[in-house]
Amino acid sequence: MSRFYLTTAIDYANGDPHLGHAFEKIGADTIARYHRLIGDEVRFCMGMDEHGQKVAQTAAARGVDPQTLVDELAGRFAEMWKRLNISNDRWVRTTDAHHRRGVRALIERALERSPGDFYEKSYEGWYCVGCELFKRENEIQDGHCVLHPTRELQWTEERNWFFRLTNYQDFLRAHFDANPDFLRPASRRNEILALMDSGLEDISITRARLSWAIPFPRPTSDGVEQGTWVWFDALPNYLTDTGYPDADWEAWWPAQLHVVGKDITRLHAVIWPAMLQSAGLPLPEGVWGHGFVTLGGEKFSKSSGVSLELDEAITRFGPDAFRFFLLREVPWDSDGAFSWERFTDRYTSELANGLGNLASRATSMIGKYHDGVVPASSLEASADIADAVRRYRAAMDAHLLHTGAEVAFEVVRTANALVAEKQPWKMAKDPALAGELDVVLATMVRYLAASAVLLSPFMPAKTAELWARLGSGRDSLAALDELAALDVSGWKVQPEGILFPRPEAVAAA
């Protein structure tokens, strides 16, 4: 059994979860569930990023202390992920005592091993509180950060500690060359390579007199206590979750995959590897930078006012339909749009009329013609299912979730095409076709079982319901390599119930 340690970006505690957060968590959860499906031991970590100037400002605006704010928001985020069936088994908050101790231990280790990587100087520049970053000239448009156009940039002058990122220019380039899959998809890799080719700059890693932060281990030479820059605090969560610096942390480090948004790939593919190298620790094996979900062409963002009610989107057709739609509609390697029209259309055509209708037809006909027991028939292994499994695994191993969902749904379409061709309700009227009818009914169940397994990472609750209705008598799903030749003879189906009610029925409920 292989170990697979998967993380997402930890969410910043200054507002409620929105569709962009949900897209990342649903995608990462699908990857985690796929790896469990193929037998890996999975560790799946998520959490909250709770320090920094933006949190302090938000708390002040609400008239509460920062800890009260982050406690409230952490609870709301955790409840949302539970509602969406996110299967993370780890939850890190950067205000946790262990995380704070781990961050200080990591910085102290880097200071000891690579003292030349740290220096102090006075600095001035435009600071974006939204990004918690000083911005380069090419990152400013019309006096605003290009990522947070509604926020005012702040001119900041203070003496800080700096990290000599320029020391790692050659190391990082060599690492990218030696590990072409370190940062994916290829578009993100190309962006970061272009950034490195233009030359890296040293970064300020502390803020003077910032109280809502993990204290930096060293004051500056003028005696001013420094707060650790929020990203130097947040990025180590992936490491501190393993137990670092206590015993046995190496059992789960390095992580196999960090899933993050494309706007923070520089932090995860440049700054984080440099921090780890400075401390003499292994680098993560991979980073995936997914794209954005847009609404009317605009990125979902609290600060820019582009949003929809996440609760409304989930309630429309249920959590599993929402999960499926996002990953079916929005490519995992690029941007994509959300629209209510497309949501309704895809739900109707693929889930209600496609998978749901197939399940109802198969179970009702077996109930009518065979008292609910799948007839025994010597089915040959299905070349269609075998091919689908092969292509599904290739897509999911490459984290192309939209392609994996498409391949899984080809099985549903193939089964529906078989039903349309054979018309088993007509075959049932001719006793001479009884044997052929048995083969068709058993084949339908095998296709449904394969669909339940392949779609289970995307729709865990609904596929578990489908698997139970097929009556295999097995508590767990079949393995992928069983599906093409799965023996469904004797399964006792449950014809009652509608897997995916039609939209008009949902609206009337």
UniProtKB/TrEMBL annotation:
The Aminoacyl-tRNA synthetase class Ia domain, residue ranges: 4-57
Molecular function per GO: ATP binding; methionine-tRNA ligase activity
Residues in coiled coil: none
Keyword ATP-binding included in the entry's annotation: yes
Keywords, in A-Z order: Aminoacyl-tRNA synthetase, ATP-binding, Ligase, Nucleotide-binding, Protein biosynthesis
InterPro entries xrefs: aa-tRNA-synth_Ia (IPR002300), Anticodon_Met (IPR041872), Met-tRNA_synth (IPR014758), Met-tRNA_synth_2 (IPR023457), Methionyl/Leucyl_tRNA_Synth (IPR015413), MetRS_core (IPR033911), Rossmann-like_a/b/a_fold (IPR014729), tRNAsynth_Ia_anticodon-bd (IPR009080)
Pfam family, one: tRNA-synt_1g
EC number: 6.1.1.10
GO biological process: methionyl-tRNA aminoacylation
Gene3D superfamilies: 2.170.220.10, HUPs, Isoleucyl-tRNA Synthetase, Domain 1
Segments traversing the membrane: none
Residue span(s) of domain Methionyl/Leucyl tRNA synthetase: 138-362
Job description of the protein: Is required not only for elongation of protein synthesis but also for the initiation of all mRNA translation through initiator tRNA(fMet) aminoacylation.
Family as reported in the entry's similarity comment: Belongs to the class-I aminoacyl-tRNA synthetase family.
Name recorded for this polypeptide: Methionine--tRNA ligase
